[in-house]
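so the lab meeting is tmrw and i was supposed to have these ready like two days ago... anyway. pasting both below. for each one the top line is the aa sequence and the line under it is the structure tokens. i havent really looked at them closely yet so no promises
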Amino acid sequence: MTIRKATVLGGGVMGSQIAALLVNAGLKVKILDIAIDEKDPNKISRKSYEMITDKKRPQLFDLNFAPNLTYGNFEEDLQGEDDADIYIEAVKEELDIKHSVWKQVKAVAKDNALFATNTSGIPIEYIAKVFNEEERQRFFGMHFFNPPRIMKLVEIIPLKETTEESVKAAQEFAEGKLGKGVVVANDVPGFVANRIGTQTMNDIMHRAEEQGMSISDTDALTGRAIGRPSTGTYGLSDLVGIDIAVTVTKGMQQVPGEDKFFKSTKTAEKLVESGALGRKTKQGFYKKEKNKILVFNPESNEYVEQSKPQYPVLAKFSKDLTANMDVIFNADDEAGLFMWETMRNNFYYSALNVPKAASDYKDIDRALVWGFNWKKGPFQLWDMMGFERVKNRIKEELGELPEWIENRTEGFYEDGESIERVASVSELIESEIWNREDSNLSVVNADQLLLKLQSGNNIISDDFAKDLIEAVDLLESEDFSSMVLYADGRNFSVGANLFMMKKAHEMKKVDELVGPAIDTLHESFNRMKYSLKPIVTAVQGKALGGGCELVLHSPFVVAASETYIGMVETGVGLLPSGGGLAEMSDRILSTNHKHDDKQQSMTEVLTNIGMAKVSTNAYEAKRYGYLRDTDSIILNVEKRVEAALNKARLESEMNYIPKPEAKYIALGRDFKALAEGMLDAQRLGNFISDHDYEITLKIAEVLSGGDVPRNTYVNQRYLQKLERERFLALLKQEKTYARISHMLETGKPLRN
């Protein structure tokens, strides 16, 4: 079944966000709600529409998508016959209201329409009471996690009568069209993610109270060290809403057999009673006061300054999660044992929920990774800690294990196995050409090259630039059809090596150390741009600074929709030096603009780079000029490499024509004068500092083509030379050094 049209029932916060997600995915969407005003029956749904299409903070990737969204009300729009392929209900969590809405929907829906409820707390079976036997075959829970645009997890909860075809259609829709990760859950309280995620948070809070452990100490032990969000347990509860955790806990306590796993926590209940629900009320377990984050003291009922945790075990942890699991297993101190019990209890409860909550233990891992932002799920962590020794210790400490664990003699995952349903890149590789510190070059699909950026934090290092040149040489000289460049991790690349810049300034060897690196960077990016065979870059997350410039020079790009691209060098007192300014000039000056608006386009580029603007999604990156109309955008980030390989294959088979090196007419001194006037006004108005003025003026000099008359012919290599000169000049300045140092120390820009 192909789903092209959707109706969202309920225009509240969640309904609006789901509607926006569907529109972003290319569907025609109608959002409906109750009519509370006879004179304005669409009042609620119109408000949702206006929030989704708000010009300043739109929920859509592109406001040009807005015509695909309409709004109405249940009374007027659920009449006659309706042609929606799927209805997603997100009305108030009251059974009578849901029943009323579904009675109206099923009376007008076409025979093969799918019915989905986004409930998180009401059993799916209860909501399904209004459906007949045939309608139940097309009804299921479809639980999106908040915010649905960002969170990957969607839980699909079928009834016993829901057909496999309906579940398959819903899963293919969520994964293929919306780019989500699907877990098929059973109709049990909390389904999978909330059930297990809330239980471990409750378990941690209960034991912390019993042992007299402070809130901040507990969070230090239950955050990054065990692969969970850096907020820790209490901080995450503040983010989600303490009232939600308490409500889920109390609900689970009413379920037979669950009361021993869900305990009342005094501090959480005390805060809920006082109305301190977390971030939504600006105070919960933590409270921000001026520039400090205070923590709640349950004994004094006051917010106090946090003290740094003094547990020796914390010094033993690193970014290596496997090593951390070994430290926890072998720990014998109070803090270490608390962490072991945290892992043990989570492993045990997760095992009990197979097949109770999910038929596949991998779905439990998927639910916690995709829905709670854990780095690894419970069974992945169990493997990391050592399957057999953990199994024996849990049995010794807690008694009988679930039968499926008792009968298991090997770990849960094979080496390199992932929870993703999309084939991993490693599965595509047929042979490896090299595996170096900063890059890996492999062969896939018999004649395609796959170049992986794998330097520390995916920085665009000097060694990677050299590897890129060598890879392009190999592509052009051997019998390969095309190449795809990609990087693993949440972010594609956040730029260049600032430590090297700082060191070069301190040694007073900017020209000697940085100059040649810029030359290599220019050569590598130029080789990629003018390659004789097609190259496609698959990009996701942040592509900043040098990462942005690499994307700019790629002949083709496949970008995940959640890609944030920008040249942010002004934040550290520099300007782009990898050819980014030259490339943006090339894109504007080599285009036949109507009404001669090249100067206006160049002014927008100057503003975006001068203000270090970063696109909020890939479609906005197109509007900024960082992506082109020939570049592709997909919602499923896991499919970006596969899509890039397909695009590269297509281009290689369609008479690929390499981009020729061009020359074009510069805007010259006219544009520089215009920019100077604009920047003077900003400086006089105290919108920018003197150093901001100097940096941005140097950017304008490069974009204008230097100190030349308008209509002077220039080319990209000449503009890159201007970039190099001005970059090195800025790097030698003390104010730039201060900005770089501040960024390295704090992670925040300094405006001096």
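ok protien two:
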Amino acid sequence: MADTTMEEFEALLNESFEMDTPEEGSVVKGKVLAVEAGQAIIDVGYKMEGRVDLKEFANPGEAPEIAVGDEVEVYLRAAENARGEAVISREMARREEAWDRLEKAYADDQRVEGAIFGRVKGGFTVDLGGAVAFLPGSQVDVRPVRDAGPLMGLKQPFQILKMDRRRGNIVVSRRAILEESRAEQRAEVIGNLTEGQTVEGVVKNITEYGAFVDLGGVDGLLHVTDMAWRRVNHPSEILTIGETINVQVIKINKETHRISLGMKQLQDDPWDLVAAKYPLSSVHQGRVTNITDYGAFVELEAGVEGLVHVSEMSWTKKNVHPGKIVSTSQEVDVMVLEIDGAKRRVSLGLKQTQRNPWEVFAETHPEGTEVEGEVKNITEFGLFIGLEGDIDGMVHLSDLSWDERGEDAIQNYHKNDVVQAVVSEVDVEKERISLSIKALGGDKFAEAVGGVKRGSIITVEVTAIEDGGIEVEYEGMKSFIRRSDLSRDRAEQRPERFSVGNKVDVRVTNVDSKTRRLGLSIKAREIAEEKEAVEQYGSSDSGASLGDILGAALKSGD
């Protein structure tokens, strides 16, 4: 009997050795024997029991679901500890289970279910039914999420981006799923839209260049230039976020799914009536909307703007920035100069609404009119004088003085001096006004020698005796008679035979209004008298001596 028992025992022992004893580090099946002190006691067979904390049977934030008699899978970490118990873990079993399941889902590119349960640097932790994954902040939603509170603990699908079992790393995305469903939704919405269709949308976002409008799951861009026919500086002038508006679908890009929208297309185009409403050369009041280096934009009506080019802004202010002439929002009168319907451009003129100041000056200041003005500028060729109408006149060097050289005369003038002058010429075309200072009070020389011509005999007074001749004066005008012109007779060509105050008859040999000099000669007078006497009282052929003729002429002169 004993032998048999020994044999049986041996056989049983061998059988038990042959039996596949569980390997440490593997997942085994077990039965819950009892639940006590927050732990479940589990029989894993092979006369081994272990304990597992109840919380290992619960999903984050949920109560544990475990009862006596339940069959569960656990992870056998060690066959025996100091107390002779198996060291087992439900959590690790779940993790192994989960990793198997997740790797299959990752390979098949399938979504997995999980719940966000904690925050970590740069994102969140997600429980994927036993395995913990990382959800980067950028992968939570399509747009940045300020508060992820409402998403915590919710069972929802995720996409696995990458996983590494050896390191225990899993990275997931919620955004990829949202984008996918959005793309489906967009495709459906876009499929129902046609270009030219009018739809209702809600303003979601406003930027510098336009507004994004939600058309029910898909956004369209309403560009600032398509909001109104008039110039819109910023979309917020017209729209507010959350506002419901009617828009027209202008363009749908099938590849990028970009939708362009317009608001102004639902209103009449004011340009259809521009040509009839604003004929050429008509004057209208408008409002300055924008100022640039090359001119100013003036709104004639909502949606119709014209450009006043810098060259058409002022008759007098040349090379001045338009901002110095007009200011934004100013009401101004402008003239229509040109309309280009194709380019939707109107050219306007500001200066044309005022009279040309040179024309006005020419009418009000004929040649010879005296004017007064301030010296604005002094140049090497003359003075610029400020005149009424904001225009300048120029006094050339040669028009400064009768007596001094221009270069010397200009030294007497300074900027801001107030001077008088006479208008000598107005050229409206060239926008030039010539003035003369020396002509003030008339031309003394011209007045003095008014009746004097070449060949006239005039009486002059001796004012000075010099070696080379005598200085004489006629009507306040000085002249010099050279020694050789003092007499026909060489012996008499002596300046000293004259004295200051003598009256002498002389013949005018030249009237030079440029140099303002009279050419005078006593010798020429004597020759002319002799010639005349000969013509009157006989010829030299009659035998009469020259003395007789002159004597007769002198007698008749007496």
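from a quick look at the 2nd one: The chain has a mean pLDDT of 77. The CA atoms of residues 75 and 89 lie 5 Å apart. will dig more after coffe
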